[in-house]
Amino acid sequence: MKLKKDINILIIGLGIIGGSYAMALKKQGYYVSAITKEKSDIDYALKNKIIDYGTTEIEEDLIGNSDLVIFALYPGIFIGWLTEHQHLFKSGAILTDVTGVKSCIVHEIQSLLREDIEFIAAHPMAGKESSGVQNSDDSIFKGANYIIVPTDKNSESAIELCSDLGKILGFKDISVLSPEKHDEMIAFLSQLTHCIAVSLMCCSDGENLERYTGDSFRDLTRIARINDLMWSELFSLNKEALLSQMDKFKNSFDELYEKIKSDDIDGVRKMMRYSTERRKLFDKTN
Amino acid sequence: MKLKKDINILIIGLGIIGGSYAMALKKQGYYVSAITKEKSDIDYALKNKIIDYGTTEIEEDLIGNSDLVIFALYPGIFIGWLTEHQHLFKSGAILTDVTGVKSCIVHEIQSLLREDIEFIAAHPMAGKESSGVQNSDDSIFKGANYIIVPTDKNSESAIELCSDLGKILGFKDISVLSPEKHDEMIAFLSQLTHCIAVSLMCCSDGENLERYTGDSFRDLTRIARINDLMWSELFSLNKEALLSQMDKFKNSFDELYEKIKSDDIDGVRKMMRYSTERRKLFDKTN
Questions:
Q1: Is B235–A260 a contact, with Cβ atoms under 8 angstroms apart?
Q2: Single pTM value for the model
Q3: Inter-chain contact A225–B197, Cβ cutoff 8 Å?
Q4: d(Cα B162, Cα B157) in Å, to the nearest integer?
Q5: pLDDT by 10-residue block (mean), chain A, 286 residues
Q6: Superfamily per CATH, domain A182-280
Q7: Residue A209: beta bridge partners?
Q8: Contacts with B, A 47-106, CB within 8 Å
């Protein structure tokens, strides 16, 4: 199932990700509407031609005429919104999302949803250290990963449509993962790295350190500038997987600590050589 | 004391840092010689006009005619080289270095050195993930910090000359720190960050993770590709300061871990807000 040009797309939640989706889709000729909380965000998006139409109201006609609905809300309010308003969707509508954690929401949503509507979860692995529709920028999708997270309740055609959406948005790689595999991966690659950056930034209040800071420290702490509302919620929703990855890192860090402490230079070098070899896998290939 | 144009500069050890020094100095019109172990490195440097003259031998005339000698050797062999060959230096010669740790070498070198020669320690905070004279690149000094690390045995004029050298090499900021302050700072900003990157790279052998890797993980592990010979030596030489910084990080990481585990969302958000505020200090200003 391809994303036809004449469909109506509705984005719920116009922050940086919702705005960047709208920007990319409108550039490709789609008609894009949005519902969001703040009037000023709608005004900004209309003025800057990010959307074709926008409102802060629950407009029944708008929702009832939408073929593809993209939820770009914080996970905590996403399920509440659906429960309250799902009776307004047209039969056959496809819903998708941009949420960074999956196990905790996908199954619940698929259970509560009307049978004639399909929710196919997706995670665009792209972002910035800024937030808000004013920072919308569809170039963040270039070279990034788009992950489709289906369950056995999803149809092949919805997976295909979601894949097409990822391509239209400009993502480089489109993959498919189960909710559990997704959450394990995201706990390691994204949440653990944010925990490390925050801990590093918090662990020393030394003065004037910034005068001597080089690229290593800057690179490790770039993501220490963090949206505390969103990330604390994501951590909490993926708590078990995250704590398990944090344990693994702690073990590895403790191992290195003990080797340095006991003057086990060979052991330290062995870890460094393993690290160097394994890092090569993660070089950008594009 | 300014670095006069007609002086003879000798670099001992032609790796990436020695080579990049030579490149920058020769571009500024200085006559630069080098002594290094491998004939092929001398050949490369001569062919690519990185140096004016080079040899793998301990040439007495060359050493005896050098006004400024820059040691770009691993710390472990640096002191041995000096002990063996210091009788060859001309009276009044100034020696400096590029070593990444200071307390463990500066005092020892200043004690063993002939009285008519001055050693002024310096640390160019610049580098790459690659090594060898073939990777020489004087652009790595642009925007970087150059730290002069004098003791009370150093003269004002040697500190001034060293500062002039940093400017000529193209460094953005030239600072002065005591050996102990330098080592504490480097343990935190540089060595701890490398320990974190290596531990993160070693802590999971999950397959196919590279397919989903975004910028966060890549940024945190860029320096996980590491020269194990050099860095294990630097860690070992700065062991106490490094272990102390690793302890601080462990405490901070454990604090975050416990807050996530006990669902203390407010506590997690508080750490994130502190981290976000403090990170602003470290933004590049140029």
A1: yes
A2: 0.86
A3: no
A4: 9
A5: 90 97 97 98 98 98 98 92 97 97 95 97 88 94 94 97 97 95 95 97 88 87 93 96 98 98 98 96 73
A6: 6-phosphogluconate dehydrogenase C-terminal like domain (1.10.3660.10)
A7: none
A8: none
